[in-house]
Amino acid sequence: MRKFSLFVLLSSLFLFSAIGCEPKSDNNDSLALLLLGASANSSGENLACQNKTLSWTIRTPAEANSWQAVKYGDNRFVAIATNGTTPVMVSSDGITWTGHTPPIATSYTTLAYGNGLFVTTSPSATPEKVMSSPDGATWTTRTSPTPILQSLTFGNGTFVAVASNSADRAITSPDGINWTSRTPPATEPWSQVGFGNGLFVALASAKVITSPDGITWTARNDVQAIQWNSITYGNGLFVAVASTGTNRVMTSSDGITWTPRSVAQNSWYGVTYGNGLFVAVSLDGTERIMTSTDGITWKAQLAPEQIAWKSITFGKNTFVAVSSNNGASRVMAASCD
Question: What is the pLDDT of residues 5-36, one digit of tens each?
Fold first, then answer.
């Protein structure tokens, strides 16, 4: 680190001695940006995907189910569906998938990974609205409070799920097994929850609440009243995507103050971050993939198949997305290698 800092310092001195305080050419501008970029990445974050144009390949799922969510953890990808004989599938590489049958099938729609455990929640199963698995293959039902759970995340050693009904519209668990009801400050139909930079952020149509622990929540200023479908965090930024409204992306550096962003008017349902790149997928539209290095400016991309891409995750330097087309579903993957 000292050698790198010395390099940046000496390079900066060289730059200013060469061009003075006011750069006089495009070449000098480029050199300045290069040095600033090197300094900004001195934290050592892996940005292997940042300057990549992703090349997507269709993969065959274990079964052509309506896949709702996909998550990477413990060196494997896990996806869950709302139908089929094997509504869970696992892959070590995002290419070859193996199907599994949990004790309760066809109603689970979320996935999170933390503390060595995959966890999924259901909006309709009663009373076992939660299942957990150490490997994505063998699942155990868990009893929890019974609101209509819509979204799930993990952070700060805690699983947090949010709901669209009941007085207690959040539940938390330190282990994915034992769950406790929580009461956010507003009885909104919460649709999404994410975690980043030590903060949980939950979204409803026009509302935002934040919490450091999933227990105590604070209401924030209203945002655009549209259907927010997914939220992620990366490179110091929260990014949320929607399927309705004029500006279907919004970003925030702190989870509190949000800025709308203009993108294609698709039904964006999944967004993730990996090694310097945000990637979102949609159910419809001509170009059903979009990528961004900063969450602000987005580049549209054709999907290898024009089907309903529902969820996306990142692991092993690879983006993996699943579709919800029952009977015709697919998996697509793109490596940054």
Answer: 444 444 443 333 443 434 333 344 333 333 33
pLDDT tens digit sequence for 111-135 = 999 999 999 999 987 778 999 999 9
Please give the backbone phi and psi of residue 26, each rounded to the nearest 5 degrees, phi first. -60, -35
Q: Is 317 left (phi over 0), alpha (psi -120 to 50) or beta?
A: left
What is the pLDDT, as a whole number, of residue 246? 95
Task: Name the superfamily (CATH) of residues 57-335.
Answer: YVTN repeat-like/Quinoprotein amine dehydrogenase (2.130.10.10)
pLDDT score, position 43: 55
Helix (H) or strand (E) holding 26, with range, is helix 26-40
The token duo for 120 is 């999924």
Which residues does 234 contact at the CB level (< 8 Å), separation at least 6? 196, 273, 274, 278
Residue 141: which residues within 8 A CB-CB, separation 6 or more? 103, 104, 128, 130, 131
Distance set, CA 51 to CA 62, 117, 194, 307 (Å) = 32, 33, 26, 26
Cα–Cα nearest to 280, from 259, 310, 305: 310
- Domain residue spans in the chain? 2-40, 57-335
pTM: 0.87
Question: What is the model's pLDDT at position 18?
Answer: 40
CB 281, CB 309: distance < 8 Å? yes
Place of tokens 């409070």: 145
By percentage, how much of the chain surpasses pLDDT 70? 87
